[in-house]
Amino acid sequence: MPSAHDTIGRSAHDAADGCATSWACRRDQSRPSISAASCEADTGETTHAAWRSKPSFYAVSTEDRTINPDLERFMAKRMNAKTIEVKASHLSLISQPDTITKLILEPAGQT
Questions:
Q1: Helix H or strand E segment including 86
Q2: Residue range 74-99, pLDDT digits in tens
Q3: How many of the other CB atoms lie within 10 Å of CB of 18?
Q4: CB-based contact 58:76 (threshold 8 Å)
Q5: DSSP annotation of 40
Q6: Beta bridge partners of 61
Q7: For the segment 5-30, what is each residue's pLDDT rounded down to a tens digit?
Q8: Within a 10 A sphere around the Cβ of 71, how many other Cβ atoms?
Q9: Dihedral angle sign, alpha carbons of residues 17, 22, 28, 30
Q10: 57, 103 in Cβ contact below 8 A?
Q11: What CA–CA distance (Å, rounded) separates 46 from 65?
């Protein structure tokens, strides 16, 4: 099984949009993050998937070679997410920050 660094390196390699070098340099600075699920404060266990009860938003990366864009579309549809398509590889939030920022801010009423 590949390590997290191998997976991140593979994702950086997939970044055909010219952001692979900056991503690879920052990969060691990554910190654990909380997923989009509700967690028990004491145990960290997921009690239910938040997408089942909360509005969801999804950016499909149409040039993604890490996750097939058709699979991304399937997952977005399954979670009934408002979906946008971005002409980008796997790391669209790095190569297309304005587009992704707009997707994040829109539901917060800040667009």
A1: strand 82-86
A2: 999 999 999 999 999 999 999 999 99
A3: 10
A4: yes
A5: -
A6: 86
A7: 454 455 554 555 555 444 444 444 44
A8: 11
A9: negative
A10: yes
A11: 29
What tokens does 6 get? Answer: 């191998």
Place of tokens 């660094």: 5
pTM of the predicted model as reported, rounded to 2 decimal places: 0.58
- Whether 4 has a pLDDT exceeding 90, the answer reads no
Of 58, 62, 107, 99, the C-alpha closest to 82 is: 58
Exposure of 41 in the CB half-sphere (CA atoms within 13 A): 0
* Distance in Å from the first CA to the final CA of the chain: 41
Write the Ramachandran bin of 48: left for phi over 0, alpha for psi from -120 to 50, otherwise beta.
Answer: beta
**CB of 88 within 8 A of CB of 61?**
yes
Task: Report which of 22, 6, 15, 26 is spatially closest to residue 66, judged by C-alpha positions.
Answer: 15
**15 exposed, middle or buried (CB, 10 Å; 0-12, 13-18, 19+)?**
buried
- The H or E element spanning position 105 is helix 97-105
Predicted confidence at residue 96, as pLDDT, reads: 95
